[in-house]
């Protein structure tokens, strides 16, 4: 009897609590649907206001019990699903690991860049990611493309920074050397902080398993902010040294 009751229990609707995120259909509407409907949505969208959205189409979308807080990340000019979760990532075509339309906002050409050239760069980047280019509006900074399955898709800082001759920087090192302080912080995070963050978080979670999760998050944020400042200061010192050498030459 217990097994029958367990089978009859309706699974919960998806969970999404992070500020700025939303779904279509809305969570309130999904909460009223029966299990059979939650297991076969015709389309489903997760978005983040001011950042973008991911829309799955094609029908048969099973969203029962999905922890969208963990599964979906929509960030500054990037989107990812199941990132770092290979142990739970389903095969292609199942779960959320299936074709989707991604819309990213805030993908504006760098100051002084030619909009047409930057648009061509965005289209080239789309193909390089293995995605299908749909549209890019440089005036509004909206980029749309389709993906066959899920990894991380987006535009890195190095893709939008330009060197003194107007050509694209070739990597994060070039962006870090050429960018102003704010962009230099982002480049430093790209170069250094991500692996540090992952390692630190793993160790911190191991130490605080079951308790102190909030304190761990605060400590991690403080730690990363300090490292970012150190990286920015190092780049600034290197810039000054190069300028001194140029004056002495």
UniProtKB/TrEMBL annotation:
<dbReference type="GO" id="GO:0006606">
    <property type="term" value="P:protein import into nucleus"/>
</dbReference>
<keyword id="KW-0813">Transport</keyword>
<feature type="compositionally biased region" description="Acidic residues">
    <location>
        <begin position="1"/>
        <end position="11"/>
    </location>
</feature>
<dbReference type="GO" id="GO:0051028">
    <property type="term" value="P:mRNA transport"/>
</dbReference>
<keyword id="KW-0539">Nucleus</keyword>
<dbReference type="InterPro" id="IPR036903">
    <property type="entry name" value="Nup98_auto-Pept-S59_dom_sf"/>
</dbReference>
<dbReference type="GO" id="GO:0034398">
    <property type="term" value="P:telomere tethering at nuclear periphery"/>
</dbReference>
<keyword id="KW-0653">Protein transport</keyword>
<feature type="region of interest" description="Disordered">
    <location>
        <begin position="230"/>
        <end position="249"/>
    </location>
</feature>
<dbReference type="GO" id="GO:0017056">
    <property type="term" value="F:structural constituent of nuclear pore"/>
</dbReference>
<dbReference type="GO" id="GO:0000973">
    <property type="term" value="P:post-transcriptional tethering of RNA polymerase II gene DNA at nuclear periphery"/>
</dbReference>
<dbReference type="GO" id="GO:0003723">
    <property type="term" value="F:RNA binding"/>
</dbReference>
<protein>
    <recommendedName>
        <fullName>Peptidase S59 domain-containing protein</fullName>
    </recommendedName>
</protein>
<feature type="region of interest" description="Disordered">
    <location>
        <begin position="1"/>
        <end position="20"/>
    </location>
</feature>
<dbReference type="GO" id="GO:0006405">
    <property type="term" value="P:RNA export from nucleus"/>
</dbReference>
<comment type="similarity">
    <text>Belongs to the nucleoporin GLFG family.</text>
</comment>
<dbReference type="GO" id="GO:0008139">
    <property type="term" value="F:nuclear localization sequence binding"/>
</dbReference>
<dbReference type="Pfam" id="PF04096">
    <property type="entry name" value="Nucleoporin2"/>
</dbReference>
<dbReference type="GO" id="GO:0044614">
    <property type="term" value="C:nuclear pore cytoplasmic filaments"/>
</dbReference>
<keyword id="KW-0509">mRNA transport</keyword>
<keyword id="KW-0811">Translocation</keyword>
<feature type="domain" description="Peptidase S59">
    <location>
        <begin position="18"/>
        <end position="150"/>
    </location>
</feature>
<dbReference type="InterPro" id="IPR037665">
    <property type="entry name" value="Nucleoporin_S59-like"/>
</dbReference>
<keyword id="KW-0906">Nuclear pore complex</keyword>
<dbReference type="InterPro" id="IPR007230">
    <property type="entry name" value="Nup98_auto-Pept-S59_dom"/>
</dbReference>
<feature type="region of interest" description="Disordered">
    <location>
        <begin position="154"/>
        <end position="175"/>
    </location>
</feature>
């Amino acid at each position: 009897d217990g097994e029958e009751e367990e089978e009859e229990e309706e699974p919960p609707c998806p969970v999404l609590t992070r500020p700025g995120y939303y779904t279509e259909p809305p969570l309130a509407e999904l909460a009223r649907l029966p299990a059979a409907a939650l297991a076969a949505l015709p389309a489903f969208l997760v978005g983040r206001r001011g950042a973008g959205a991911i829309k799955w189409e094609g029908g048969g979308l099973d969203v029962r019990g999905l922890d969208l807080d963990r599964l979906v990340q929509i960030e500054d000019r990037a989107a990812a699903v199941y990132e770092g979760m290979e142990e739970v990532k389903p095969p292609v075509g199942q779960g959320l690991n299936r074709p989707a339309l991604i819309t990213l906002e805030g993908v504006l050409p760098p100051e002084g860049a030619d909009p047409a050239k930057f648009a061509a760069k965005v289209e080239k980047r789309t193909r390089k990611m293995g995605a299908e280019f749909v549209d890019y509006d440089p005036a509004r900074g909206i980029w749309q493309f389709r993906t066959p399955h899920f990894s991380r898709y987006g535009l890195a800082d190095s893709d939008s920074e330009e060197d003194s001759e107007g050509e694209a920087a070739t990597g994060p090192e070039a962006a870090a050397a050429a960018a102003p302080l704010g962009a230099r912080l982002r480049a430093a995070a790209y170069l250094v902080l991500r692996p540090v963050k992952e390692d630190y978080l793993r160790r911190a979670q191991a130490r605080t398993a079951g308790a102190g999760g909030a304190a761990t998050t605060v400590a991690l944020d403080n730690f990363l902010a300090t490292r970012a400042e150190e990286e920015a200061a190092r780049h600034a010192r290197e810039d000054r040294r190069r300028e001194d050498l140029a004056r002495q030459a």
